[in-house]
Amino acid sequence: MTRSGAVIGLDLGGTKISAGLVGPGATGIVRHAATVPTPAAAGAEAILTAMIDLVRPLAARAEADGTPAVGLGVGAAGVIDPATGAVTAATDHLRGWAGTPVAERLATATGLPVRVVNDVHAHALGEAHHGAGAGRSSVLLVAAGTGLGGALVLEGRVVTGAHGVAGHLGHVPSPEAAGLPCSCGRTGHLEAVASGTGLLERYRDGDTGHGPAEAASGADVARLAATGDRWAAACLDRSAVALGGAIGGWINTLDPDVVIVTGGLSEAGARWWERLRGAAAAETLPAATGCPILPAALGASAALVGAASLLSTRTVD
């Protein structure tokens, strides 16, 4: 169903929750954006409360602007049932999040129609429609942030799969992650080395004398690598090569028009990008050579724009 008027886009990630007014119309322009930290360890009720507290002032602002909000589009961490907007599964990044009826609770609290997809699916929709994938028919987005996820957008629609699981790129086997624990409870998955959290954990694994005070995030490890910390550089290289090799495999499997890389690790610098692209090229079949691997263009607004598109057109398969 197509709606006119402003739509509130909401993006729930592992570290922050963002919201903003998008539109009216399919402009991709975000107004009055606001962000708060995700109370990830406090449980589902605290997370829902933080989301509602972001949405209500935006709805009032839209009313004051003369373009009342006509709906709320949400990109939320976890496996989402696209029919009900409930979380069917989640990793331990968000405590107690699995089973949360997100759409139902937000609709009751706000009085707005609500559509929910996975947060990375929302990012992909935003980039495919208005960002680095605009004008392309097949877009693979890889999100290397707190965790590692992704999404495939075909002809403007995100592929969610039979169970809403499509795009969990971090949960594929990786030789670089052999024996390492993953956030999903299994071992040997790509996320354990190629996410920001995985990079930090691998850095802390080293017997180098470095500890949490030296690095508190994957971004800190990247900064240490840039200053000549050899162990940080080795960990960063391992992370980039693992992800790049996987991207090469996905190019061979899906043959997309473009691969877009987003998330905190995409800001790790030239060294990370060089090794990622090199590893991808080493795995890509000759017939698929030349598939561009690009940084995302919309930044933090991508998920808000993509989530809002859930109310403006049919964007989910």
Automatic annotation (TrEMBL):
Family matches, as InterPro entries: ATPase_NBD, ROK
The organism's place on the tree of life at top rank: Bacteria
Pfam family for this entry, one: ROK
Family of the protein in this entry: Belongs to the ROK (NagC/XylR) family.
Name assigned to this protein: Transcriptional regulator
Provenance organism: Tersicoccus solisilvae
